[in-house]
Amino acid sequence: MSIVRFALKYPSTFYVLAAFILFVGVSEIIVMPEDIFPEIKIAVVTVIWQYTGLSVPEMEQRITT
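^ that's the sequence the OP posted. Answer follows.
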């Protein structure tokens, strides 16, 4: 039996299925948090280094590369 014949023979089944999908969708929208991205704590590394004879940009470039 095709789905069209089944839907024509038992239309209440599809009404209940549509109501169920609508109910689940609305309830999930209410429960879902507003921000879809989680809170991520980014690790921060601080380096204190003294090296005489280099400028600040050059020292930064040598450490980061």
